Automatic annotation (TrEMBL), chain A:
Pfam families: ABC_tran. It comes from the Bacteria. It comes from Micromonospora gifhornensis. One of its GO terms (molecular function) is ATP binding. Residues 5-228 form the ABC transporter domain. This is ABC transporter ATP-binding protein. Signal peptide: none annotated. CDD domains: ABC_MJ0796_LolCDE_FtsE. Keywords: ATP-binding, Nucleotide-binding, Transport.
Automatic annotation (TrEMBL), chain B:
InterPro entries: ABC-4/HrtB_transporter, ABC3_permease_C. Its main location: membrane. It is a multi-pass membrane protein. It comes from the Bacteria. The keyword Membrane applies. The chain crosses the membrane at residues 15-40, 259-278, 306-327, 339-361. It comes from Micromonospora gifhornensis. It is found in: Cell membrane. This is ABC transporter substrate-binding protein. Residues 259-368 form the ABC3 transporter permease C-terminal domain. Keywords: Cell membrane, Membrane, Transmembrane, Transmembrane helix, Transport.
Length: 228, 376
């Protein structure tokens, strides 16, 4: 199989002069379609920086990021925005939903940004994540787990090739954390989405196909670290 | 409009508060517009209705008080009548006077002395036109005081009697005083303070305030050349408004208030949308991370401000017009006209959108990276 997302010697340095921080240090990673990869590691290790470069939110200092056949480092800022819209889905901490929108409108929102080739039906998607009964509720009327489910549906509505998930269980109890990550794994497998999930929660890692650990900007197989 | 409309309905309390502020500014704008038009009409409606294109005053007269200071020889009328492009020229006298009718009604009049039968001799809506000395036709607004055709107005201090023979069809005021048209010789005697029955020196019949000039249709009169020949200083009719008592001070004051109002409106709208944008920073970061372009976000926010401004300004203008209609029924100089209200409303909207645009441009500086958690 060919990798849907591949990073080759990606380095990201913040700041300049003497005041520099190496957030990513020659990171190499490949994620195949339908694969759920978890990235664990202590705070400040560079996990969110990894999501940022994978999601074209920031350009790496050096190295190459390929999204299927596309080299992200060769794209203009405008094109990168379109790539995020068409090919990448984001699931944020606590859902990061828009306060004024109902659950159904949260899912519809990415479809209003521009043309999407083959979108999924927002109502069907809400039903798939078990939220159709709360389609007309706003974020403040939902629990943490429900907000995450809506956030997952919003990320998947454009049929992205890559799904980037940032601490999806940060504000959830144990059972809801299991449910949310199980949902992510199911969606990734059933719809062939290459999924990278950054998490501190080691209890959900059994849902993942692979676990990587990030320490001081370097990405290692989790097996090499006894803590996982 | 997807986000804009939903946000307007979701945060309706916050937007209603802003809408009330814009509506109040719109009400004030309409009232100021009505007051402005009313004061202009009260100040120069008589001049506006003169069928002239320019007025030739005394040479180098002070322009802001030309009507009260200017003295021109009647011979200048003939000089002006022969200028190229001039259809007609006629003498015009102007002075302010206090009077009392035989019914005991006190009245202040701006007396306009005109040659009977000249193009300045006004048509009347009631009674008859001027025919001979000792007669006067008055503005419709003077008739509202209770003066009617057949009354006699005795001017102070000389006690000159003027018989009201006609009433003009519309408001004719000058410097907030009702105009009374009278024959030129009668005006010259009133101006000189000649008592009724007394002999007047012949020289007073050679003096007028200005030469009223009417250009031929489509002709462009060379005012400088005419002034050189006649020894006068000309003003176009519009320029002569500034010579009306208090006109420049009143209009410039009101204009300044309106300018400040527009500036305040832009600042208030700008400040509101600045706060709104700052509060929405995290939300905007998420939307940008999801793939929304800067243009999408700017368009959405600007449409939101336009909807808010149009709705609240519409409500404000409607209330302002209703309030203005009530004020128009009072003696206050207040006139509602569609064009000034439309211009004022358009300015309010345009400057409001400018204020909102400056505010929402902050969107371009929101980094989508901030949508991710604090573990970066």
């Amino acid at each position: 199989m060919t990798a849907m997302l591949s990073l080759s010697d990606v380095t990201l340095i913040h700041g300049d002069g003497e005041d520099t921080v190496t957030a990513l240090d020659k990171v190499n990673m490949e994620v195949e379609a339908g694969e759920l990869v978890a990235v664990v590691g202590p705070s400040g290790a560079g996990k969110s920086s990894l999501l940022a470069v994978c999601g074209a939110l920031i350009s790496p200092t050096s190295g190459t990021i390929r999204l299927n056949d596309l080299d992200l480092s060769a794209q203009s800022p405008r094109r990168l925005t379109a790539i995020r819209r068409e090919r990448i889905g984001f699931v944020f901490q606590s859902g990061n939903l828009i306060p004024s929108l109902t659950s159904l409108d949260q899912v519809r929102l990415p479809l209003t940004f521009g043309k999407v080739a083959n979108p999924r039906d927002p109502r069907e998607l809400l039903a798939e994540v078990g939220m159709s009964h709360k389609a007309d509720r706003r974020p403040h009327q939902l629990s943490g787990g429900e907000r995450q489910r809506v956030g997952i549906a919003r990320a998947l509505v454009t049929r992205p090739q890559v799904l980037l998930v940032d601490e999806p269980t940060a504000a959830l109890d144990r059972q809801r954390s299991q449910d949310v990550v199980a949902l992510l794994a199911r969606e990734a497998h059933e719809h062939g989405v290459a999924t990278v999930m950054v998490t501190h929660d080691h209890e959900v890692l059994h849902h993942c196909d692979r676990v990587l650990e990030m320490i001081d900007g370097r990405l290692l197989p989790a097996e090499s670290n006894a803590s996982v | 409009m997807f986000l804009a409309i939903r946000e307007l309905t979701f945060a309706r309390g916050r937007f209603a508060l802003m809408g009330v502020v814009v509506a109040l500014i719109a009400i004030l704008t309409v009232l100021l517009s009505g007051l402005s038009v009313g004061l202009v009409n009260d100040g120069v409606s008589g001049l506006k209705r003169l069928p002239v294109t320019s007025l030739a005053f005394q040479h180098e007269v002070a322009k802001d008080s030309a009507f009260s200071r200017s003295v021109v020889e009647t011979s200048a009328v003939d000089t002006w009548a022969t200028q190229d492009g001039v259809a007609e020229a006629a003498p015009l006298g102007n002075t302010l006077a206090n009077g009392r009718t035989n019914e005991g009604i006190e009245v202040d009049l701006a007396l306009f002395g005109v040659e009977v039968g000249s193009f300045l001799d006004p048509a009347v809506a009631e009674g008859q036109r001027l025919a001979g000395e000792g007669e006067v036709v008055i503005s419709s607004t003077a008739a509202e005081l209770g003066i009617s055709v057949g009354d006699t107005i005795e001017l102070e201090p000389a006690g000159t009697p003027l018989k009201v023979v006609g009433i003009l069809g519309e408001q004719h005021t000058f410097g907030h005083v009702d105009i009374g048209y009278l024959p030129l010789r009668s005006w010259q005697e009133v101006k000189a303070g000649v008592r009724a029955g007394d002999a007047a020196p012949e020289r007073i019949y050679n003096e007028i305030t200005a030469v009223a000039v009417r250009a031929a249709d489509g002709a462009d009169v060379d005012l400088a050349a005419g002034d050189k020949d006649a020894g006068t200083t000309s003003m176009t009719l519009e320029q002569s408004f500034g010579a009306s008592p208090g006109y420049t001070a009143e209009t410039s004051t009101l204009q300044l208030i309106q300018v400040f109002l527009y500036a305040i409106s832009a600042l208030v709208v700008g400040a509101f949308f600045t706060v709104l944008t700052v509060q929405r920073k995290q939300e905007i970061a998420v939307i940008r991370a999801l793939g929304a372009s800067t243009r999408y976000l700017l368009r959405d926010s600007l449409l939101q401000s336009v909807v808010l401004l149009v709705l609240s300004a519409g409500v404000g203008v409607a209330i302002g017009v209703a309030a203005g209609a009530a004020i128009s029924a009072t003696p206050m100089p207040f006139v509602l006209e569609a064009a000034p209200i439309a211009v004022a409303t358009a300015l309010l909207l345009i400057l409001g959108v400018v204020g909102a645009t400056v505010a929402v441009l902050r969107i371009t500086r929101v980094d989508p990276l901030t949508a991710l958690g604090g573990n970066r």
